[in-house]
Amino acid sequence: MPEVCGRTSSSRTSSCRKPDRNNPNREMAQEMILKQILMVPLAGFASLFTLPAEANAAAIVKDGEVRAEIVISDTAPRSTRLAAAELQTYLEKISGAQLPIGNEPSADPSIKIYVGESCHLEKLGVTAAGLMHGAYRIVSGDRWLALVGDDTDFVPIEPWAKNNSGRVEKLQSEWEKASGLSLGVPNGGLYKFRQLMPASVAKENREYLWQFDERGSLNAVCGYLRSLGVRWYLPGELGEVVPQMATIPLPNVDRTVSPDFEVRQFNVRFATVDEELMRWSMRLGTRHPYGQMIAHGMDTMTHPDILKQQHPDWFALYGGQRDTQIGKRLNHLCYSNPELFDATVKWARAQFDVYDYDSVSIMPPDAYIAICQCELCAGQQIDDMGARGKLSNHVWDFVNRVAREVSKTHPNKKIVCCAYGANTNPPSSVKQLEPNVEVVIVGGRRPRNSLPEQRIPIKALRAGWQKITDQPYLVFENYPFTSRRSYLPAFVARTIGDSINATKGFSRGEDIWLSFPRVHDDPNIGFNHFQVYFTARMWWGGSHANVEAMLDEYCRLFYGPAGPQMKSFFDYCEVNYQAMESDKQKIDKALQVFTAAKASVVPGSNHAQRLELIDQYLNALRSKGNQLLQKRGWVTKLRTVREPKEPIVIDGKLDEPYWRDCLSASTGSLRELQTGSRPIFGTTVKVGWDRSGQSLYFGIRCEDQVGDSLNISTTKNDDESIWYGDAIEIELDTDSHSYYQIVVNPAGTLVDLDRAAGKSSRFRWESQAEVAAHIAKDHWDVEIRIPVTEDENDPLNQVIGRKPSQSLPWHFNICRQRIRENGAEYSAFSPTGTAGFHVPMKFAHLYDGGSHTFEVDPTVTDFLTEHTAADKMMRRQQYDQALEAFVSLSKYETATDYQKSVALSKAANCARRKKKMEQAATFVQLIPVEAIAMTVHMQNLVAERQCPALIDQFGPLDLLSFPFTQIGAAAFARGQAYYTLKSGSRADADFRLALKFTADTRTRMSILRAMAHNRELVMHNDAMALEAYRNIIDSKTNTGSAEYFTGLQGVARLLSRRGDHEGALDVFKLVDINKLAGTWRASMRISYGQVLEAAGRKSDASQSYREVLTDEKAAASHRRRAKEAIAGLHAGD
Questions:
Q1: Cβ–Cβ contacts within 10 Å for residue 5, how many?
Q2: Angle at CA of residue 653, ends 650 and 655, nearest 5°
Q3: Residue among 959, 948, 1011 nearest 985 (CA)
Q4: What are the φ/ψ torsions at residue 8 (nearest 5 degrees)?
């Protein structure tokens, strides 16, 4: 940029030196600027001017010398003064000459540049008459140039809040006094639309520039500067392209330029951004008209809490309850209620009367996806119209009726509603909307849908609305939100431009929301400036505005020598960016092209710095590429096969037929988070989809201790203290978004967040889930319906995705935490192998359809994978190999203390089974979790038959002080010691405690066997022993285990002992003795013979004993016992 000399604005002449022609950072020479600008008739600017050919023609600046002055009215509005200063600044940047600004034309022969309306300009016959919505006129004459448009200052209408405290403390009451209504105040945030005027142009201290000010003359100034080659591609000096011109001729021009849309606004608020961003938005020709109310007006109207108490029938009925919860972010309404209709009409009229709005929003609160369930609304939700139309008839009928009534008193005002969510598609019940209804089509362009086939339904949506209204519509768009971690390179200039051109002549304007930065050097400005620039400039230039030429120029001027490569980069991204969600080759190709662009510029130059902004944005894409390199290892899956035949009522009871008869493919269990073992307190999850694919259901049962109080840390939705108590988490990584988190506790309290968003905005997302919980004596249930939509227009509400399939599954996890004073347990449907829930690559597959095997990368390994493999070795009795594997796992780099402790405890178990007692003892000292170390020490002492030592050391210990996840194992070990020492009551107490805190079915059967033996042989209590044996044989699992057969023998023995021989014999019908393998066949035949003998059936008993003698697989000990039994039978003969 050229060096600029400092002067006062009153200076009439300039001695500033000419710009340095050797400056390496100047953007281009004068002749190149003119050549390039004339190449591109951008938005009608460059082609408007004819430059004088004569060498001595009139010039504004001649060889760096001032030859002109800027004239504004002495009563110039705010934006006129700002426009004059802008012109002065940039003419100086271009030429090095600072033109003076004055209120009266001087008598010298200098050229007069009139900015804005004034009496002097009026004498020349030039005014702003007829220039509306930011239109402007540029006209020249004999030694004068006029840059003029409507610059009307906005004047706020009372009452309005001057700051947030005023909004909170008194605005509502002032509005009620002015309107005579106790309904919500509509303009609470008006103060956010103003910013202090720059001191250099302010007339008084604390003079405010309003976003609602008209800025026609500023548009004229910017249009003129663009004709000279100035560009503002992004905010701040780095975003400027400014030519260097020693001479600026007076053009021969007379042209009026009008925008293509009245409404040209982004979600920028002057009060919330820095000055560079504010100026940038104005330079781009945006316009945010006052009184254009667009979204969710009905939420504003019914926001006061008093209305929920005074008029509960205004609010929707769901599940028998009115939606009147105080403090809830969104309370939905009953649009069939006649009182609500009357209040709405009054509220609309009051806004027109008090604030003189052009339009009033009569749009439902956000995320309106389910109709009120009262009798008046019955049958008005038309599910056959689909997710984007099922509420259209209901909503638009209400809007149309309000508009018809309001038009009787305010015929020139508009009633606005968005085509959005469940009322996106045109209604079938309304043939023609009232003429004062203005439709705002949310997603009316959808430029992120950049593929040709994706453009078809968007065009059809617009056409559908045009059939039922003769009025222009508005377009509302949500661009990719970088604040919500949008990372794909959606540089879609052509789609932006073509889609805007397609709406010209039909649309009245646009409201665009994106992550508009607050500061001009925001880290995501490299992407966001691109979206904003091409959108804003395409709002001008007519239906044939050439976005291709605009993109060519942008690449050439902004990136210099990297221009051709950047053009290739943007071209490639526009076509391929959507595929980069899953296609690493396309990511690599885009990054390769961008790397070539970076290599072509001088390091440290403006071009390099601009590329750096995009480079920063692409870091997330690079991370995605690296992530795609990592394939998913084996994870579990859950699938839906059939749909609920009857509606699922969300009451937390899980008593619908669908849940009772849920198929095993749609049912799963949670496992311990870090090791994949069975948790102490089990959890079962069932899943279902409705037929429409718009509702995902989960039924979750959480087992718990009878008599134990649940840990409910909050009963308030969106309260982060929920994580201090018992809770279920649902993680959903859909085909469209990664990923959502929904948390529910036993009170049915809900917290939902978007994990893809930044930490500061995660909690803004609302799942709109319907949830209920039910607490029973030994469990608690959660029942939840999660609305799902394919519509990406509203990223702040609902889960976005398509019903998953085999080819396009979702990934998900269901996690549980149980928090108590004596420990915590964490489990998951798909264990992560870490201490946390949030490991997306460990999420399970979720899909609808038949059985399917997903591709697995066999090279993916982690602690969990290797721990599972070691467990398999142990089950196969490969104890030496398993021991080695567990020891290795205890040294795993990322292993937690808990994982190390579990691995070492299992290594000790392997050592004990191999009778390597000294080695087992060494592991105790290595275990970092004390309770586990103590338990392993007890197990070692039991195996070494050092039971007195165990009781001496651990007998006085209160095992309830252990973490509850360790109580079961410790109690079982100590109980075995007491049993060995024939301390029957103490052993029984420990065994009962062990059962309460043991979930593994095989271990429970071992505990029951020890308990039964203790009761029978030590306590000599056959009744209690029989109960324990019966608990073993009542098991539905492990029916081929030694414990199960021992249980059968015990029940038969004790029944026979009490004389119930038939009952005892019936027990053996639970197994087919002849099909038993190994020694159990002989053992069971001896037991069967003993019962027959006790029943007096000696012949049958003898036959059973003899079958043992002829069994080749029978052990010698069994043969001996059989011979002795036969001998006993004949001893009395």
A1: 13
A2: 95
A3: 1011
A4: -85, 155
With beta carbons less than 8 A apart as the criterion, state whether 938 and 954 touch: yes
Query: Within a 10 A sphere around the Cβ of 45, how many other Cβ atoms?
Result: 22
Tokens read off for 853: 């095997």
Q: Is the peptide bond preceding residue 159 cis, with omega within 30 degrees of 0?
A: yes
Pairing, β 68-71 against β 844-848 = unpaired
Taking only the tens place, the pLDDT of each residue in 133-188 is 999 999 999 999 999 999 999 999 999 999 999 898 899 999 999 999 999 999 89
Helix (H) or strand (E) run with residue 415 in it: strand 414-419
- Taking the C-alpha atoms of residue 512 and residue 480, their distance in angstroms, rounded to an integer, is 11
At 844, give phi and psi (nearest 5°).
-80, 165
Write out the H or E segment, with its range, that includes residue 72.
Answer: none
Torsion from C-alpha of 374, 376, 378, 383, nearest 10 degrees:
-100
Pairwise CA distance, residues 37 & 27, whole Å: 13
Distance, CA of 704 to CA of 529 (rounded, Å): 54
For residue 846, give the 3-state DSSP assignment. strand
Decide if 636 contacts 793 (C-beta within 8 A). no
| CB-based burial, 627-642: b 16+ in 10 Å, e otherwise | ebeeebbebbbbbbee
Q: DSSP per residue over 9-64, as a string?
A: TT-SS--PPPP-TT-TT---BHHHHHHHHHH--GGGSGGG-B---STT--EEEETT
**pLDDT tens for each residue of 898-941:** 999 999 999 999 999 999 999 999 999 999 999 999 999 999 99
SS (H, E, C) 511-529: EEECCCCCCCCCCCHHHHH
987: three-class secondary structure by DSSP: helix
Q: What angle do CA 635, 639, 643 make, to 5 degrees?
A: 165
The tens digit of pLDDT for each residue in 208-231 reads 999 999 999 999 999 999 999 999
Distances (CA, A) of 1121 to 294, 807, 1076, 1091: 92, 62, 19, 15
Q: Which long-range contacts (CB under 8 A, 24 or more apart) does 453-459 make?
A: 455/495, 455/499, 458/499, 459/502
> In angstroms, rounded to a whole number, what is the distance separating the alpha carbons of residues 1122 and 781?
53
Burial of 316 (C-beta count, 10 Å sphere; 0-12/13-18/19+) = buried
Cα–Cα distance between 295 and 359 in angstroms, integer? 11
**How many whole angstroms separate alpha carbon 77 and alpha carbon 726?**
62
Backbone angles phi, psi at 225, to 5 degrees: -65, -35
* Domains, in order of start, for the chain: 30-153+213-257 (3.30.379.10), 637-848 (2.60.40.1190), 861-928 (1.25.40)
- pLDDT-derived band at 49, boundaries 50, 70, 90: low
